[in-house]
Design goal:
By secondary structure, the protein is α+β, with helices and mostly antiparallel strands. The chain has two domains: 33-191, no CATH class; 199-352, no CATH class. Helices cover 38% and strands 18% of the residues. It contains ten helices and ten strands. The chain has helices at 2-30, 33-40, 54-59, 137-156, 190-196, 214-227, 292-304, 306-314, 322-340, 342-352; strands at residues 46-52, 68-75, 81-90, 106-109, 125-129, 163-172, 179-187, 200-201, 240-244, 252-255. Strands 1-2-3-4-5-7-6 form a seven-stranded mixed barrel. The protein has a three-stranded antiparallel β-sheet with strand order 8-9-10. Strand 2 (68-75) and strand 3 form a beta hairpin. The chain is globular and about 60 Å long.
């Protein structure tokens, strides 16, 4: 009897080992997000050459932009040089308009078949954020600063977009000698973010803040207050993606686009016109009115992560200039000074919040 028990135990171990091996090899197919994360799992910049009809793309209407054929070149980790056929178009709202920015953001459209086995495997569409006005050093820093803000929210919330820095060389195929190298970054697609978090994007409008999961909504509102950003709304929605993690529970908000925040303070940014502030470096709380218990829980989360947030801004690999580091650190320090007096902060929030 004992011998049979030992045989059964050994058989179970073999079965468990077999299932483990099978799941190991099948998991990328069962869970394709692993391949998608490959692009976003490192912090160092990808060096990319992009050959495209740049002037034609810039001349397109923002409201009806068309894709153009382009060639994307980069080098894999093993040294293999890769050349991919892609399609590219201009995108965005404010930064898409040539009256505001001389270089619009871009949207990449990949063929899943052609990118199989490459860094871009399983990617479909990807946003690329570029300097609004290339050739002006401060605009290059604004891109690095916005990238850092995405990283700050990554540190605070799992419900956030991943980003990957890119050192991009742009070459217009109609002017081969005219090239420019810019720092930029890819943003994880909405679909990939939702897949990674086992959720689903809700294409809904007129969603009130009270309809979101309370803690994640408060966390986002406090974060936007911390960075001095009033360029967002859940009702339209504007610069917010609505993510459902469970059809029987409230959704969570996921923010993007931070170039109008006070922590960056771009020359073109301005506060929400409905608010009683005149510049983006003045903070204003755009969240719902909240009780002291919820606020204190969120503030404690922020304070517990203060050291890692400051370190993220000041570390060398972020590519920020010393001036950018000082500016952003000072802005964060100002918030944390406010947070030390929790009752004062609650009183201020109560004076600026809304009830819906």
């Amino acid at each position: 009897m004992k011998r049979n028990h030992l045989i059964n135990q050994g058989f179970k171990k073999q079965i468990n080992l077999f299932l483990t091996v099978v799941l190991f090899f099948l998991w990328p197919m069962i869970n394709p997000v692993l391949a998608q994360e490959y692009l976003f799992d490192k912090e160092f910049p990808i060096e990319i050459e992009l050959l495209l009809p740049l002037d034609s793309i810039k001349a397109e209407s923002c409201s009806d932009a068309h894709y153009y054929k382009a060639i994307l070149r980069y080098t894999e980790r093993g040294g293999e040089k890769i050349s991919l056929k892609v399609r590219v178009k201009k995108r965005g709202n404010f930064r898409c308009d040539s009256r505001n920015c001389t270089q619009p953001p871009l949207m990449f459209n990949f063929s899943k078949k052609s990118v199989k086995g490459t860094l871009f495997e399983n990617q479909d569409k990807l946003k690329l954020v570029l300097p609004c006005r290339p050739g002006r050093g401060k605009y290059q820093q604004y891109i690095q600063e916005e990238l850092a803000v995405y990283k700050l929210y990554n540190e605070l919330s799992p419900y956030s977009f991943k980003v990957r820095p890119v050192k991009l060389t742009l070459q217009d195929i109609n002017r081969p000698l005219d090239t420019v190298t810019l720092y930029s970054f890819f943003i994880e697609s909405e679909e990939a973010m939702a897949l990674r978090l086992r959720g689903k994007i809700l294409n809904a409008t007129n969603v009130r803040q009270r309809e979101f999961e309370p803690f994640s909504m408060t966390r986002l509102s406090i974060f936007q207050f911390m960075i001095g950003n009033t360029d967002w709304s859940t009702t339209e929605p504007h610069n917010i993606v609505i993510l459902s993690l469970n059809p029987f529970e409230p959704p969570v908000p996921v923010p993007y686009d931070f170039d109008w925040s006070g922590i960056i303070n771009t020359p073109y940014s301005r506060p929400n016109s409905t608010l009683p502030i005149t510049k983006v470096t003045e903070r204003y709380y755009l969240g719902r009115c909240i009780g002291a218990d919820t606020l204190y829980r969120v503030i404690k989360e922020f304070k517990d992560k203060k050291a890692s947030l400051i370190e993220l801004i000041t570390k060398e690999k972020m590519g920020l200039s010393e001036g950018s580091k000082i500016k952003m650190k000072d802005f964060l320090d100002e918030f944390f000074e406010m947070a030390e007096d929790k009752s004062w902060l609650l009183k201020r929030i109560d004076g600026e919040c809304f009830t819906n």
